[in-house]
UniProtKB/TrEMBL annotation:
It comes from bioreactor metagenome. SUPFAM superfamilies: P-loop containing nucleoside triphosphate hydrolases (SSF52540). This is Ribosome-associated ATPase. Residues 142-194 form the ABC transporter domain. One of its GO terms (molecular function) is ATP binding.
Amino acid sequence: MKQKLGLCCALIHDPDLLILDEPTTGVDPLSRRQFWALIDSIRARRPGMSVLVATAYMEEAERFDWLVAMDAGRVIGCGTPAELRARTGQATLDGAFIQLLPEARRQAHRTLSIPPRVPDGALPAIEAEGLVQRFGDFTAVDRVSFRIERGEIFGFLGSNGCGKTTTMKMLTGLLPPTEGVARLFGKAVDAGDLETRKQVG
């Protein structure tokens, strides 16, 4: 929302050049999509307006007319997204950017591969059963249940305000649930249980 407000403020005097410095950093995917739809609608009404954008999101850079790829303060490539992909023989802009990096920086890059986990039968690290969090009449988290095995990488994915942080606060004992139960290493979450909390970073 702050990014949209900042954009509106920048557009009040109807500029010919709009400069956006990482305008969607830390913004959820839905809000990012809405932000760029707003930019597209502005450009449709003002085709002569130039837009300069700094971003680390390659999927956003795909929509730009021209790119300057930089590393350590130096330009490492220029062109349209299609030209950069073609020049490097890569199918994605992520891959193209990595190929444009100096050899010494590229050597450290490895494709991430996470092998499937084999459950070992141990107690799970976290269990949530029917977690609910209400603030007055507003239900922030509604009957959330899941199990996270030890050694598992588990992620919450969703837009800002969807309940991710509230759920995490209930799992760590920072916020008692309105309903339901959370367990860490088989024990019900208790903010005062220092032995269990020592196992959580």
